[in-house]
Every structure is written in structure tokens, then in C-alpha cells.
Amino acid sequence: MDITPSLILFSLLSLAIGMAMGIFLQKFKNNKFFEDTKKEAKELLDEARRDANQVKSEKMLQAKERFIELRSEHEKLIFNREKKISELENRNREKENKLNKDINRNKNLSNSLEQKNELLQTRLNKLEIKQKEIDKNHEIHIQKLEAISGITAADAKEELFDSLKKKVESEATAFAKQSLDEAKLTVEQEAKKIIIATIQRIGTEEAIENCVSVFNLESDDVKGRIIGREGRNIRSIEQATGVEIIVDDTPEAIILSCFDPVRREIARLSLHRLVTDGRIHPARIEDVVNRTSKQIQNEIIEIGKQTVIDLGIHGLNPELIKIVGRMKYRSSYGQNLLQHSREVAKLCGVMASEMGLNTKLAKRAGLLHDIGKVPEEETETSHAILGMELAEKFGEKKEVCNAIGAHHNEIDMTSLFSPIVQVCDAISGARPGARRQVLDSYVQRLKDLENVAYEFNGVTKAFAIQAGRELRVIVESEKVSDNQAAELSFQISQKIQTDMTYPGQVKVTVIRETRSVNVAK
Predict the structure, then answer these.
(1) Following CA atoms 314, 320, 326, 331 in sequence, which dihedral angle do they give, to the nearest 10 degrees?
(2) What gap in Å lies between CA 269 and CA 291, rounded to an integer?
(3) Global confidence as pTM
(4) Which residues pair with 507 in a beta bridge?
(5) For residue 204, which phi and psi values (nearest 5 degrees)?
(6) How confident is the model at residue 480, as a pLDDT?
(7) Mean pLDDT throughout 229-243?
(8) Strand blocks (E) in 323-469
(9) Could you point out which of 4, 54, 137, 452 has its C-alpha 20 to 30 Å from the C-alpha of 36?
């Protein structure tokens, strides 16, 4: 098919349609409808312009009002700032005026002081001139008197001084003699009154110190369990505590014998726990004894605290409180040391009150006067000096330290509390039944017996038992062999024989024990 005629026909058709549209549009422009539409659009445009002008005017008005408001606020802020500045300026001006007034006042005072100083200086100069004139006239009069009397002023002064001195010495001697006679008549009587009043106001009990304790049992069957197979339990208890356990025919009781009350108490409490628990064997015994020892240490602290509370003593060092508690388990000449110290403290408080002194300080010195008797380690220092050193170490006052050190006249007394402590110590120890010399010497002999064993190497523990007739020595198996143990026993017995005095015989038993311990995990 040929496409060219079709294209020509389509082109002619399009041209005809375009010409028709052009003729239509030309006629439409000339039409009245188009004019009305154009007019209406113009009116809308004018109305829009008027509305725009009106909105513009309103916005301009609002902007002017906002500007006026902001300007008003700014003016107020500026006014407030100017007001504050003005107030500050007024205050500064007032301060400046006040300072100026003060400066002027000070200047006036300074001027007046200068004037007064000048006036005083003038008067002082006049007085000096008059004093010189008086001294000159005095010298002239003295010269005239010397010429008339024929003796110089120095000689006359010396003679007058000698006569007055002799008169004063004679009067002073007479007064001193009279005072001394009166004091001799009254001082002994007054001292007796104070001491008697002090003793009467303190109730005391006789101190009884034993070296044995009786441990009661529910039945005699328990004795066999305490002894153990082949005596191993009783040996373990004696070895751990250092206390001799006497099992005899006494019904439902065994006897604990030891000169040291602490060891005896540890043994008693340990036995009580073992019997109550029912498990008695060497390992259990060692564990119970260790725990009981710790318990006794805690009880010692509680006893010390209760003692200072009962006596009304405050601020005592904890170490001194512990030492006071240890005094319960010590004795002096058969007298319980804690009871003795409490008694001395009360006596000191009463006597200080009678003399008008500080009762609390006196009680403090009385309680601590024998702390040197319970040292942690034995020393050669006397208990009074050792107690004074302990008190100084733990911050006690000088009066208390001096009273402790001087209560046996080993140092000079520097305060009134020292003689009070000395007298009260004598009162407490000298009353009937207070002390027993025999027990104290016996206990000291047992301590010396144990100390002899500690002088040898390898010794860990030493216990004097059976009233000092046997010394049990426990050695370290790593340091001492079996042969050396036998030799050590001989050496200790020879040293006791040469260095000590004792009745009868002393049996020395050296115990060497080897243990193998392993832990299963």
C-alpha cells in the first residue's frame, strides 16, 4: 500500500482543523463573555490588593505596638538598673563619709594623745628635777646627821639590820618550836582518826587462796573416760594444761592441782566441756583447751572492765584493763591480788576524801599500784618500778605513776597520793588473815622450778606438778632427739640440784612426741 496519499490527506485534515480553531478563537475573543470574565478578574485582583493593603496596615500597627511594649520594658529595666546604681552610689558615699569621720576622729584622738604625751613628758621632766633636788637635800641631811652622830649611814643600816635579824630569828625560833609542839600533839591523833575512819568505812573479807580445785562428776563411770585407754586422755589433759589431775577414791569427784589459778581454771572449764560433750580423746582435748584459753582471755578483759566500772574509774587504757583482769588469777602472800587492789582503791578513795583530795585519782592509783606483779614476761625489775613503767607507757598521770613506783619507797614521793597508796597497801595487807607467807614462797619455788627448764634449748612447755615433786618438760621433736631427751632430763635435774633449795626430791620427766599429720581433701 502506498503511504504518501494518506499522509497528504492527514496533513490537509490537520490544517483544516487548525484553521477552524483559529477562526473559533477569534470569534471567542470578540465575544462579550470573555469581556465579562476579564472584568471580574480585574475586580478580584483589585479586592485582593485592598485586602493585602489592609493586612499590611494591621501588621504594621501590631509591629508598632510591639515595639512600643519592648521599648517600655527596656526603659523600665534601664530605670531599675539606674536606681540600683544610685543606691550603691549612696551607700558608697555614706561609707566614704563614715570613713572620713573616723579618720578625722582618729586624727583628733591622735592629736589629743600627742598633746597629753607632751603634757605628761613635761610633768615627768619637772618630777625628775624635783626628785634630783630631793635626793640632793637627802644627801645633805645624811651628811649632817653623820657629822652629828659620828657614824656613817652604812654602819647605822648594818647595825639596825643585825638587831632586827636577831630579834626576828628569836621570834621565829619560838614560833617554830610552838608550832612543832602543837603539831606533835595533834598530827598523830589526826592521822589515827583518818586511818581508823577509813578502815571502819571499808568492809573486808579474808582472802583464801588454794592450790587445788575439786571437779564434781555425775558418776564414777566418768572417771574411766577421763583417764582413757592406758591413761592417754589424762596425760593429754595434763600436757595441754599443765595441771595435775588426781583421780582417787573420792566419790564423784577428781582433784585439779596447780599453783597457777589460770591453768587450774582452764583445766576445770575444759573438763566440764569434755564431760558434757561426751567426746574425750587427745585431739578433742587439745581443741577444747585452746578454745577455753581464748575464753579465759576474754573473761579476763570483762573482769577488768567490771572492776573499773564498780570503782567508778574512767578512761583507763585497754591494756591496763586487761592487766587488772589478770590480777584475779594472781595472789600475793596468799591474798588474791585483784581483791587486794580493789580494797586498796576503796581505802585510798576514802582517805583522800577525808583529806580533801581527788578521790577518783586516789582510787586509780590504788587499783593500779600492784600491776607490776602480773607481767606477761618475768623480769628482774621490782613490781613497783615495773608497774610505774607500765603506767607511764599507757599514759597515766604523773601523780598515779609516782604513787605506783613509790609505794615501797623505791623512788621519792612527789605527791600526796603516794603516801596514801603506801598506807592503804599496808592496811590491806597487814589485817589479820589477809596474807600467808608460806603459800607465796611455795608458789615462787614452783615458778622458779619451771623457769629452770625454759633455760634449755628445745623446751616448749614446762609444768611443775605434784606440789613441786615432779617437773614435766615438753620438747620439740624436731630439735631434740630421743638420746638428747634423756641427756636433757639429766642436765635439768643437775641444774635444779645445784641452783635451788627444795624439800625432798624432784622428778624430771622429758616428753618428746612425734606427730605425722596429713589432710585429705
Answers:
(1) -90
(2) 10
(3) 0.47
(4) 470
(5) -125, 160
(6) 86
(7) 82
(8) 331-332, 335-336, 459-465
(9) 54
